TrEMBL record:
Its EC number is 4.2.3.3. It comes from the Bacteria. Catalyzes the formation of methylglyoxal from dihydroxyacetone phosphate. Keywords: Lyase. Substrate binds at residues 19, 23, 45-48, 65-66, 98. Residues 6-152 form the MGS-like domain. PROSITE patterns: METHYLGLYOXAL_SYNTH, MGS. This is Methylglyoxal synthase. Gene3D superfamilies: Methylglyoxal synthase-like domain. One of its GO terms (cellular component) is cytosol. It comes from Pseudoalteromonas caenipelagi. Belongs to the methylglyoxal synthase family.
Amino acid sequence: MQTTEQTLPITKNIALVAHDGKKAALKKWCLAHESILQTHKLYATGTTGHVIEKETGLSVEKLLSGPMGGDQQIGAKIAEHQIHMLIFFWDPLASQPHDPDVKALLRLAAVWNIPVACNEVTADLLISSPCMAQEITRSLPDYQGYLATRLD
């Protein structure tokens, strides 16, 4: 498939997701980076969003809880180019009943070429990048071009 380019804005749309065993770690991470996060638009799965909003005061657009479809909602926003970065503190030591949704979410992030952090250190590296405060260009699949060749 051919690719196209898209410029991501200075103000990024950041999705925040955490499994139950990692919600406290994500809350702590958000508190540590509150001054940066407040300059961006935040989305989160339901319970995670409530925890972050209550404990940090950050404004968060809350979707459904992950197991109730929130992971899929974030995946849809990624596919629609509405999410520019995914911070997903997943718990690799606990089984998740919605594991197929989690894998689909991570797959979409890879397909649409958005940065993903699955732990605190990687999230620290992403959030402290100079790219957070500037427009950046990313390559992504040219789905419209693909469709055009299939409809001829």
